[in-house]
């Protein structure tokens, strides 16, 4: 059994196919002993890659894009999440909400796990003809703190992950989920990457086998209604009401959160435009500058 270690920026529902592949032995079927760590702070994933502790990092593609040609180059080999897992929470009922309602408001956005929340929400505003500068933001605090402050009266809206948003609305009848961003189009939200160095045949083979197992995990999740594996979801997310986990999982299944390990070109190009508009990159990178299709193409 070959050791294969992952370093991840967090523990999230949008990583579910990886967790299923681990629990169901799909990686072991490929001769891989997969282990996972989540460093704190999250940017410790880069240290894990640098010192050879990890074979791959799992996180946002904005990191390899932002670092390229400035600090260190990273290559993306595959994705796991094909859509944004965020949601927008508002006070009162969601009926009649349109995105233009946020103009002139204060939006709280968690940032403890990186910049992707603010990047995506502001990109979404621009795509809908809304100037992000027409909104005020509070985004330098972690999600739990901002969630408590929002429910206590701070701000008008709160952007967080869909699971936390639905759990909040379940507990608090004074708020509702106004928008689930999983329905807002393709974007390579969570990807696997490593430092840009030549791979040995053994490393490339291990990555190919890893992706075979991961694709099997994706297929398994897509083929099984979340109701049929409630017990597993309860084990994986014990701190969230189970009906909420089941509901969000089925929403993700239905709305294209998980498709395959291949990074979609149109989604990549969309995200690059968003990163450029946010000044994270000088101009959008071409697909081939960031993504290596070899491991996924070989399956």
Automatic annotation (TrEMBL):
Needed co-factor(s): Fe cation
Annotated catalysed reactions: N(6)-(pyridoxal phosphate)-L-lysyl-[4-amino-5-hydroxymethyl-2-methylpyrimidine phosphate synthase] + L-histidyl-[4-amino-5-hydroxymethyl-2-methylpyrimidine phosphate synthase] + 2 Fe(3+) + 4 H2O = L-lysyl-[4-amino-5-hydroxymethyl-2-methylpyrimidine phosphate synthase] + (2S)-2-amino-5-hydroxy-4-oxopentanoyl-[4-amino-5-hydroxymethyl-2-methylpyrimidine phosphate synthase] + 4-amino-2-methyl-5-(phosphooxymethyl)pyrimidine + 3-oxopropanoate + 2 Fe(2+) + 2 H(+)
InterPro entries from the UniProt entry: NMT1/THI5, SsuA/THI5
Record has Iron as a keyword: yes
Subunit (UniProt): Homodimer.
Function of the molecule: Responsible for the formation of the pyrimidine heterocycle in the thiamine biosynthesis pathway. Catalyzes the formation of hydroxymethylpyrimidine phosphate (HMP-P) from histidine and pyridoxal phosphate (PLP). The protein uses PLP and the active site histidine to form HMP-P, generating an inactive enzyme. The enzyme can only undergo a single turnover, which suggests it is a suicide enzyme.
PANTHER family: 4-AMINO-5-HYDROXYMETHYL-2-METHYLPYRIMIDINE PHOSPHATE SYNTHASE THI11-RELATED
Protein name (record): 4-amino-5-hydroxymethyl-2-methylpyrimidine phosphate synthase
Upper taxonomic lineage: Eukaryota, Fungi, Dikarya, Ascomycota, Pezizomycotina
């Amino acid at each position: 059994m070959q050791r294969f270690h992952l370093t991840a920026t967090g523990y999230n529902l949008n990583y579910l196919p990886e967790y299923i592949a681990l629990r169901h032995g799909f990686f072991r079927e490929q001769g891989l002993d997969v282990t996972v760590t989540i460093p704190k702070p999250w940017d410790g994933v880069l240290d894990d890659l640098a010192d050879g502790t990890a074979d791959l990092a799992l996180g946002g593609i904005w990191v390899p894009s932002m670092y390229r040609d400035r600090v260190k180059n990273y290559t993306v080999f595959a994705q796991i999440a094909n859509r944004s897992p965020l949601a927008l929470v508002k006070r009162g009922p969601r009926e009649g909400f349109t995105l233009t309602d946020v103009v002139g408001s204060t939006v709280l956005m968690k940032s403890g796990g990186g910049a992707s929340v603010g990047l995506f929400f502001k990109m979404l505003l621009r795509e809908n003809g809304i100037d992000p500068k027409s909104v005020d933001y509070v985004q330098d605090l972690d999600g739990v703190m901002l969630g408590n402050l929002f429910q206590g009266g701070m701000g008008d809206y709160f952007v967080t992950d869909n699971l936390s948003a639905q759990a909040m609305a379940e507990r608090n009848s004074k708020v509702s989920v106004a928008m689930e961003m999983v329905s807002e189009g393709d974007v390579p939200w969570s990807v696997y990457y490593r430092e840009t160095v030549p791979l040995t045949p053994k490393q490339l083979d291990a990555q190919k086998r890893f992706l075979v197992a991961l694709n099997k995990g994706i297929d398994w999740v897509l083929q099984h209604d979340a109701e049929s594996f409630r017990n597993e979801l309860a084990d994986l997310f014990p701190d969230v009401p189970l009906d909420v986990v089941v509901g969000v999982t089925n929403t993700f299944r239905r709305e294209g959160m998980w498709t395959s390990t291949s990074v979609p070109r149109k989604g990549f190009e969309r995200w690059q435009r968003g990163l450029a508009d946010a000044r994270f990159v000088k101009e959008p990178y071409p697909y081939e500058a960031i993504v290596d299709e070899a491991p996924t193409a070989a399956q």
